[in-house]
Write a structure and sequence with these properties.
The chain has 190 residues and is mainly alpha-helical. The chain folds into 2 domains: 1-104, Rna Polymerase Sigma Factor, Chain: A; 130-190, no CATH class. Helix content is 74%, strand content 3%. It has 9 helices and 2 strands. It has helices at residues 2-14, 18-38, 43-59, 72-92, 107-128, 133-143, 148-155, 160-180, 183-188; strands at 95-97, 100-102. It has a two-stranded antiparallel sheet with strand order 1-2. Helix 2 (18-38) crosses helix 4 (72-92).
């Protein structure tokens, strides 16, 4: 059922089916609004981010990798979150010249860049799933900014050195998996 739902939404977006797109707005837009409002934005910002995420899906050539995500809602939320974080970063990177605010990025370039970043995130996420359970657990704790000492205690390692070695090996394994993927060169040198 989960897979049919993802396929249904992706096919509707790909076909630019207005009924499906309206359904996506009705079911998922309010969650994006909530996220953006909690993170220094307003409803207009949320609408822009949501529209950009839908546009990203419309222009994607290969939607097969998306079908492997847990749910359409999770994928869409992640895409919107990444776009919003990017927008927040752009706001910090504006410069003032002669009392005019000049943006450092053009909309077309920004759309292409955010699509590329989303594809890179998908590649990383797919390969992360291929790690051992132990590596996934260690790296997830690291991503959650849990200290080496706490990781040592939670996983019962004998020393902080053991944790550092394990983190290094897991990062290396993930890096190797990503680099061996056929999409790596294409996504890294765009």
């Amino acid at each position: 059922m989960k897979e049919q739902s993802i396929k249904y939404y992706l096919q509707g977006i790909s076909n630019r089916d207005e009924a499906v797109i309206r359904e996506i707005y009705a079911k998922f837009f309010h969650k994006i609004v909530g996220y953006v409002l909690k993170n220094n934005g307003d409803k207009s910002d949320a609408k822009d981010v949501f529209n950009k995420a839908i546009m990203q899906l419309m222009v994607r050539k290969n939607l097969d990798s998306i079908k492997d995500t847990s749910t359409f809602e999770a994928y869409l939320f992640t895409a919107c979150r990444n776009l919003w974080l990017r927008e927040l970063s752009k706001i910090k990177n504006k410069r003032v010249t002669n009392d005019h605010v000049t943006e450092l990025y053009y909309k077309e370039k920004d759309m292409a860049q955010s699509t590329l970043e989303q594809e890179r995130w998908e590649l990383f996420n797919e390969q992360f799933k291929n790690l051992s359970d132990n590596c996934k657990e260690i790296l997830q704790m690291l991503f959650d900014k849990i200290s080496g000492k706490e990781i040592q205690e939670r996983l019962g390692y004998g020393s902080d050195t053991t944790v550092r070695q394990r983190v290094f090996k897991c990062k290396k394994k993930l890096s190797d998996l990503v680099q061996k993927d056929d999409r790596f060169k294409t996504l890294m040198y765009k």
